[in-house]
Amino acid sequence: MSWVASERYRVRQAPAGLALVQELINTRAIREYAPDLLAERETAEQWLTGAAGEWARIHGLDAPDCALSPSDPRALRGLRESFERLLTTTAPASGKDPGAAPRPVSGRGVAVRLAPDEAGQVRLLPVGRGRGWLESALWSETLLAQRAGTWPRLKICRNSACASAFYDTSRNNSGVWHDVRICGNAANLRASRERKRIRAAAEGDRDSGGEDAPAG
């Protein structure tokens, strides 16, 4: 088993169960060469079966029933948007526009189960089936990651054409690109070209002003 959606982006994987949140976000389409995995019921169910199976393997649990209803793919796409907003809202200040207003995040309550493991440690376990199980698992993993301090390292690539979810492993948690060589270099090249264009335009304006200035 593997995290199919995230593998398409070749991103740094989030640790343990937090990878499930990353996986949901990375189900989005990748330009023209990879489809939205939540677009249709069949592909959404296939993705959820694989993702839930990988999550269960990591936690040493049985995989849940992943059957979806015809309306579930649309609801899952809405859930994905909620987590995208949540990551944007809680991103470190160094990666945010200081003038941007926080984006509201809303969600309904979900059920979870508290149960001790063989060592007597209480575990937070998702309940339900299909979409209900996924919601329960996602919010459980979000809570655990926030308590563990790993949540701020799960980010969305600043390149809007990419927008993949990646796990920042930099020492000071300052990463903004899922891959500096791909998205970072492309953004820097665009910025460099824009600076040259502005500089050339400014120089052209100065030259034009000098030639056309009226005589005294």
Would you give an account of this structure?
- The chain is mainly alpha-helical and 216 residues long.
- It contains 6 helices and 4 strands; from the N terminus they run ααααββαββα.
- The protein has helices spanning 4-9, 18-25, 41-59, 72-89, 130-148, 180-212; strands at residues 112-116, 122-126, 154-156, 165-167.
- The strands form 2 sheets. It has a two-stranded antiparallel sheet.
Work out the helix count.
6
* Rg computed from alpha carbons, rounded to a whole number of angstroms: 22 Å
What are the secondary-structure elements, in order, as H or E? HHHHEEHEEH
Overall mean pLDDT stands at 84
N-to-C span: 80 Å
Largest sheet: 2 strands, antiparallel
Q: What would you call the shape?
A: globular
Helix content: 40-55%
Strand order, sheet with most strands? 1-2
Structural class: mainly alpha
Question: Total strand count, please?
Answer: 4
Beta-strand percent range = 5-15%
Low-confidence stretches: 94-102
Short summary:
The protein is mainly alpha-helical and 216 residues long.
Feature tags:
single chain, 216 residues, mainly alpha, two-stranded antiparallel sheet
Map the helices and strands.
Layout: H1 4-9, H2 18-25, H3 41-59, H4 72-89, E1 112-116, E2 122-126, H5 130-148, E3 154-156, E4 165-167, H6 180-212
Antiparallel strand pairs: 1-2, 3-4
